[in-house]
Write a sequence for this structure.
């Protein structure tokens, strides 16, 4: 089989293990290509640190995981469920039933002749490689797409309940007190009763030592307190994955420690975490896997020891020499 | 020529013209307040139509409708709209309500166009991170809008909305075109019966001024109350 440009990923049926799976995503902002065909998985229990120079697409990748940014091409799967619209290039059945494939087939072996498996493989590979699919590929292909969607697609709002997100600039709701911030989503989404939500929120606030701030508005708190409360707000949804988008980059230096130590506690509790960070020491200590990105692609990934101790890629070595 | 305050006072108090003035003042306030409320509802809905990110055809049509609405109601004079509603639209539709109600509707429709733009600006002024945080927690677009974005947007637009209300109060003076007796018309009648134009119109201006000052005070108070979540 020809190694295709678009991808040579396993079919959807293989994914049953709970994880976030990124399949060959591209993200363009206008003419700017931010992500260039990138695939990775985050398995339950992993702590993945994403590092790289600014503008390399780290945050965009993270935001694609919970679809705050919609990938231009490619798919994102969460626990075996598709959260982006299906990408035809990732489904062989769609490509095979497309008009383009039929035309190609007819031009090679003639109309009405059943193509051999080898020929089909070649045609699928050619279509992927040369990006031949059009917007509309006939009824059969549309039916395949609908089928895939029907079998796998889940609503993003449901999917997001499993993924907490912590932002660089905190984004606590300014119109609510700390307690209202914490109980808002679980109560509105009917995941918890108001009483249970309050109780859980208070327990979490106590854990981070901020229960006395529950009736304050976010504006009155320090940056570090705000960020820790933002982390707790995500935890109130009982998420299975936590996404951190440079959580300490906008903080005063003396506040960084308290946020990192809360994140470390979370990691020790076994939370699955994806962390975009510039804190190399933290990445090295906490992460089970480090991804180095540059120019919209994953350049190197591996254990922290390998990435920080024995980097292979020239660009990574250069990056590390500047930040360490 | 001098101002004959005595003559004015005789008419105002002696001939009980103040009753007409008070009734006119009430009419003015009813039209302005009613117009503001109708305008708020229409304006908020139109603003949301304009901002929904969905690419569904329904929402595109609704956005187009609100663009046309704003263009029409901002592009024609208030008096003309009032006349058209009174002499064309309502008679054609066979609706017969009091002229005061007609004027209220007319002002509501008109200020809806302005408030739409005010609300749109207010919603856009709320940091994008706020709605992203809401969405990331699993709230859908409308839940995020209602519980996170709109409360902050309304707070941001209160000064501008107050401005709109003040403008509305002063603009209602044109309702005499459809024979509604508002506070302006009441003073006009007084001037006509006494020929004491100067005193009447100076008093009229003072009435508007006091009204606007009182409203300004109320808006400031409301604004302060809504700012409790801010440090400033």
């Amino acid at each position: 089989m020809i190694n295709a440009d678009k991808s040579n990923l396993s079919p959807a049926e293989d994914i049953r293990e709970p994880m976030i799976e990124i399949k060959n995503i591209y993200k363009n902002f206008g003419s700017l290509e931010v992500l260039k065909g990138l695939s990775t998985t985050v398995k339950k229990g992993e702590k993945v640190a994403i590092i790289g120079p600014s503008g390399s697409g780290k945050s965009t990748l993270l935001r694609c995981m919970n679809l705050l940014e919609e990938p231009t091409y490619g798919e994102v799967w969460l626990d075996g469920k598709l959260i982006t619209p299906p990408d035809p290039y990732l489904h062989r059945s769609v490509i095979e039933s497309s008009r383009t494939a039929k035309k190609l087939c007819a031009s090679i072996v003639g109309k009405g002749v059943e193509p051999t498996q080898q020929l089909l493989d070649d045609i699928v590979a050619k279509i992927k490689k040369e990006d031949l699919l059009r917007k509309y590929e006939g009824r059969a292909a549309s039916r395949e797409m609908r089928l895939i969607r029907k079998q796998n697609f889940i609503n993003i709002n449901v999917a997001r309940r499993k993924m907490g997100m912590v932002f660089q600039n905190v984004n606590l709701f300014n119109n609510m007190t700390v307690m209202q911030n914490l109980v808002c989503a679980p109560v509105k989404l009917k995941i918890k009763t108001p009483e249970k939500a309050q109780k859980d929120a208070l327990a979490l606030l106590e854990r981070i030592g901020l229960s006395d701030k529950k009736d304050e508005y976010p504006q009155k708190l320090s940056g570090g307190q705000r960020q820790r409360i933002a982390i707790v707000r995500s935890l109130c949804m009982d998420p299975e994955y936590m996404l951190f988008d440079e959580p300490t980059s906008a903080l005063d230096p003396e506040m960084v420690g308290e946020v990192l130590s809360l994140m470390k506690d979370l990691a020790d509790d076994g939370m699955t975490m994806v962390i975009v960070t510039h804190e190399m020491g933290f990445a090295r200590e906490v992460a089970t896997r480090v991804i180095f990105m540059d120019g919209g692609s994953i350049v190197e990934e591996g254990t922290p020891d390998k990435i920080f101790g024995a980097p292979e890629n020239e660009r990574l070595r250069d990056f590390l020499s500047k930040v360490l | 020529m001098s101002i004959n305050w005595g003559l004015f006072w005789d008419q105002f108090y002696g001939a009980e013209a103040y009753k007409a003035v008070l009734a006119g003042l009430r009419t003015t306030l009813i039209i302005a307040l009613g117009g503001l409320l109708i305008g708020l509802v229409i304006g908020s809905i139109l603003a949301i139509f304009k901002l929904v990110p969905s690419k569904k055809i329904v929402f595109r049509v609704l956005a187009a409708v609100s663009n046309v609405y704003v263009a029409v109601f901002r592009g024609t004079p208030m008096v003309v709209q009032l006349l058209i509603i009174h002499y064309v639209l309502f008679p054609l539709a066979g609706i017969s309500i009091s002229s005061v109600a007609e004027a209220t509707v007319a002002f509501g429709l008109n200020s809806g166009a302005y408030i739409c733009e005010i609300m749109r600006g207010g919603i856009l002024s709320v940091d994008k991170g706020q709605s992203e945080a809401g969405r990331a927690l699993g709230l859908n677009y409308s839940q995020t809008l209602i519980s996170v974005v709109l409360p902050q947007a309304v707070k941001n637009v209160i000064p501008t909305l107050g401005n709109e209300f003040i403008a509305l109060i002063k603009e209602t003076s044109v309702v005499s075109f459809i024979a509604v007796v508002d506070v302006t018309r009441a003073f006009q009648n007084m001037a006509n019966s006494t020929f004491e134009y100067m005193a009447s119109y100076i008093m009229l201006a003072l009435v508007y001024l006091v009204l606007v000052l009182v409203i300004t005070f109320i808006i400031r108070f409301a604004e302060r109350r809504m700012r409790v979540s801010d440090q400033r």
In short: Chain A touches chain B at residues 66, 68, 157-158, 160-161, 163-165, 167, 169-176, 184-185, 188-189, 217-220, 230, 233-234, 237 (CB under 8 Å).
